Amino acid sequence: MRILIDMIKLRSVMVENPALALPEAYFYSTVNQNGLKTIRELATFRYTCRKCEDAPCISVCPADALEKDGDGLINRYTNLCVSCKSCVTICPFGTMMTDFFKHHRNRDLFYDLKDENELKEFIAKCPDGTVSLTDNDESPKDNVYQLNDKVLIKEYLYTTEKQ
Ligand code: SF4
Ligand code: SF4
Known about the structure:
The protein is of the alpha/beta class. It has 5 helices and 8 strands. The longest helix is centred in the N-terminal third of the chain and has 10 residues, at 7-16.
C-alpha cells in the first residue's frame, strides 16, 4: 500500500484558495538529515522544478539555504531558511506553491506518515481527492511517479523531448 499525492490537483486547489493551510506529510530519510523535509517539498523540487542551469533561486537566497545536489535537484536546508520567499518570487516557473514556507515553524500541520494514525489524519485533512491510498505502482503514462517506497506523486513532468 502506498500513499498517492496528486500535486496537480493540490496546485489547482491552492490557486482557488491561496489562504488555505494545507496539511503537510513528512518522513525522515537517511539522505536528508538537515531538518524536516515535507513530501510536498521533496516532490516539488524533484518533479516540478525545471532544474535551471543558473538556478536564480539559489543566487537570490540571502541565507545560503538552497543548493543543488549531485543530480541537479534543489535542496533546501530548513535550518538555514528564514522563509523570506525570495526564491518563490524569482523562480520564473512558479515552481513553489505560494504557501510553501508558510508552516515553517507550525508543527501542528505536520503528519508523520510512518505513524498509521497520523497517516489517516493527514488524508482526512487534505482537500478532497488530493491524497489517497493505493496498491498501484508507478505509472508514467498516468503522470504517476514513485518518490520513494511509500509515496507516489502525480505531477506533469517538464521535458524538452518530443512526446
Ligand atoms: S525562503 Fe528565502 S531563505 Fe528560504 S530558501 Fe527561499 S530565498 Fe532562501
Ligand atoms: S528557479 Fe525555480 S525552476 Fe529554476 S531551479 Fe530554482 S526552483 Fe527550480
